[in-house]
Amino acid sequence: MLFTEWNLEDAMAVRYEEGLEDGKEEGRIDEKLEIARNLLAKGMTPEFVHDITGLDLETIAGLDNCR
To answer: How many CB atoms lie within 10 A of CB 53?
Structure first.
């Protein structure tokens, strides 16, 4: 049987890294949404926006309806 000692500092460091990665992912999504809004405002088609951002067409349609 493998015994490991629980260490609060190690647990906090792991949680910090996980939080950092979560924040980076949220930032990437927010950036894609901003780009999509800008492209739609310039008259680009939802299909073109999908090709550029990788966002699904349903999400893009929701952005298009917000204008």
So the answer is: 18
Q: Where are the domains of the chain?
A: 25-67
Measured between alpha carbons, how far is 42 from 39 in angstroms, rounded to an integer? 5
- Does residue 6 sit in helix, strand or coil? coil
Higher pLDDT, 1 or 47: 47
Q: How far apart are CA 34 and CA 52, in angstroms?
A: 12
Phi, psi of 20 (to 5 degrees): -65, -45
State how far the Cα of 50 lies from the Cα of 8, in Å rounded to an integer: 44
Q: Judge if pTM exceeds 0.70.
A: yes
C-beta separation of 57 from 50 below 8 A: yes
Q: What angle do CA 37, 48, 34 make, to 5 degrees?
A: 20
